[in-house]
Amino acid sequence: MSFQVKEPILIIGLGGVGSKLAVQATEIVNSDCFVISNDQKDLQVDCQTLRVSTDPIVNPSVQLIRGSTYKDFEEIKETISNYSTVILMANLAGKSGSAISPVVSKLCKEAKVGLISFAIMPFKYEKDRIFNSGVSLKRLKADSDCTIVLDNDSLLESNQDLSPKACYEIGNSAVKHVIQSLKYAEISNDTKILTSSKEVNDIEESLRDSLKMLYNTTSPNTVKNSILYVAGGENIPVGVINSISTISRGILNNNNSQINLTSSSSEESKIVMLSSIQGITKFENYDPLGIIPQEDTLDWSNPDCSIDCKLDLYQLE
Predict the structure, then answer these.
(1) Among 271, 266, 265, 211, CA closest to 241
(2) Which of 34, 205, 261, 304 has its CA 20 to 30 A from that of 81?
(3) What angle do CA 258, 117, 286 make, to 5 degrees?
(4) 3-state DSSP assignment of residue 37
(5) Which residue has the higher pLDDT, 245 or 99?
(6) Which region among 41-50, 142-151, 299-308 has the lowest average model confidence (pLDDT)?
(7) Domain residue spans in the chain?
């Protein structure tokens, strides 16, 4: 079943990376933008913003930021209620994205607003962020009509010569390719893995890198179908495009692959691949309790958060 993107559309960016992606996506989709963060420097954008206050705590935890977000619950709810579709940009490797995304996704579900979530996962060496990203991703998947996951770690594993900054640039570019296609490509109601590669002269090499990134995330038999975005495709021979289509169908063992050609300002070309997944991915291991079904989880209704109760308790000796 396909997800129908309906206007009016609101793009919500959470934290630093989310805010930048949201502003860029707004220009592509011609929609409204709403940025939420606990850090004032993330809010220096030309659109509606909301600062989640954690004062006087200087270095708040994910749970404290989430608890503080509930204080602005009504303002976020009122903003979301004016739209038919929300596109959520959340960097789950960051505190703001990981903390606030489950609150926003739950609000969208309760308001019956269509939700497409873009979730960016942390590098493997960011061990302090992995657990919280896994918890937030599980809730995003439960609340969203479609969840698109970009794994920074798999991108780095496929291209170990890249710097983290280069990985971010490749990932952001891949997200923009998908955003550009939302108005004309069918997006199914499921979880998708977004993969890409650095710009190369050999388009088949780019396809191999994208597939390698996909298989660092999940196993081949979990892939239901895929969409290939060929950047710079208007300048690539038709025979080469037909060849990569045949290769992808053969490797993925399905006949549901689609090819979308996109223009590119660079002379180099690359593949961006969006694959629908049905099965287990590496992200289920990020939260050790994530394998417990939702119906068997006692505290599922609200995500873990911290609040300042201001209780005047004394030490008993």
Answers:
(1) 271
(2) 304
(3) 100
(4) strand
(5) 99
(6) 299-308
(7) 7-144
**Pairing between strand 187-188 and 2-3?**
antiparallel
- Residue 235: strand, helix, or coil: helix
Q: Express each pLDDT in 7-59 by its tens digit.
A: 899 999 998 899 999 999 998 888 999 999 999 999 998 899 999 999 888 88
Q: Which of 150, 169, 238, 245 has the alpha carbon at shortest distance from 207?
A: 245
Percent of the chain's residues with pLDDT above 70: 85
Q: What is the pTM of this model?
A: 0.88
- Domain 7-144 -> CATH class: alpha beta
Mean pLDDT on 165-188: 83
Helices (H), 111-237: 127-143, 152-158, 164-181, 203-215
Q: What is the mean pLDDT of residues 80-86?
A: 94
pLDDT digits (tens, 9 = 90+) for 241-269: 777 777 766 666 655 556 555 555 455 67
Peptide bond into 8 cis (omega under 30): yes
| Residues 209/198, Cβ–Cβ less than 8 Å | yes
Query: How far apart are the C-alpha atoms of 266 and 37, rounded to whole Å?
Result: 33
Centre a 10 Å sphere on the Cβ of residue 208 and count the other Cβ atoms it contains: 17
CB distance 169 to 150 below 8 Å: no
Chain centroid to CA 175? 8
Cα 15 from Cα 183, distance rounded (Å): 26
Residues with Cβ < 8 Å from 60, sequence gap 6 or more?
38, 54, 68, 95
Neighbours of 169 (CB within 10 A): 13
15-29 and 164-181 helices, crossing angle to 10°: 30
User: Among candidates 244, 260, 275, 238, which has minimal Cα distance to 184?
Assistant: 260
